[in-house]
Model the fold of this input.
Amino acid sequence: MKRRALLLATLPLSVLAATAPAPRLKAGVFEPAQPAPEFALKGSDGAELKLARFKGKLVLLVFGFTNCPEVCPTTLATLAQARKDLGADAADVQVVYVTVDPERDDVTRIRKYLGAFDATFIGGTDTPDTLAAMRKRYGVVAEKIAPKQGNAYGMNHSTSVFLIDRTGKLQAMMPYGHQAKDFVHDLKILLASK
Amino acid sequence: MKRWLWLLPVVMVLAPLAWAAFAPIALPTRDELFEIPPGTYARRMAGDKIEILPDRIDLTLGLNDVLLLRNRDEVPQQFGPVLIMPGQSFRLPFEVASSYSFACSAHASGQMAVVVAPTPERGWQALKWRWQHFKKNRNKQEEGR
Done:
């Protein structure tokens, strides 16, 4: 009898929990989420860089180039800060940085560059065709900007960060300019969801 | 009594203006929806020029500050800065009034701008916002005809 009374008393709470709207992310959200396109690149850690390697972790996927003057350093510093702020949960978050400039970015250069932000970040490169095919599957734009003088060209590229959940689904995309606290906010929600 | 009658038209003009300037603005949704209708890919392949997303999108914080892109076509579509699968939506909220620029292959300029204005204050700003919103809706209706 007591058990039934307790059940009845907690019923409204459980109904409320079941119908409560999912917490909103700061990032743009894909509805419904679908599997993130798989890729296979040369990893800066010496191993093949594939999404499947990180199943069970959240992946933050970034496209950029190591000669990037502003956007890439800002984004990578923000992600490094977000990982620090996450504390122990950061172990479940993997940052993957894919170059849009394979001409200059080899694995050694990428490893050295990423190491300056966070030693756990892993980068990837490959042939221009392989990278272009990957960008197409993610809807990412990248094009060379002709140098005004000399041969130090720049790259115009998509600046958002893709958020891929533990099951490999592309859940969200955070536009450039968000602070570390916004990433922490979203990563906590995604880490908590099954 | 008759000598006050001249005030009636003045009140009839001023009262709605005062309401528009000082009544709280409420929209049915904060989503600013852009949709790719079914058959868009086929129509493009047939040579139709179809522009769905403008080069610049204007939003207002607290009123319509969520960009909602929906692909109802049968094939994946590059929609502004994102690739959206058939039947999928992309919902992007904005929390800071600013100008945002996205690299976008769907536009000739290679860029798409989203300008998020601050929430209009009561008075002149609210009046201006309502007028612009009215004009925008009227243009949308005319384009839809």
Remarks:
- Helices of chain B lie at 7-22, 40-45, 124-144.
- Chain B touches chain A through 21 residues (CB under 8 Å).
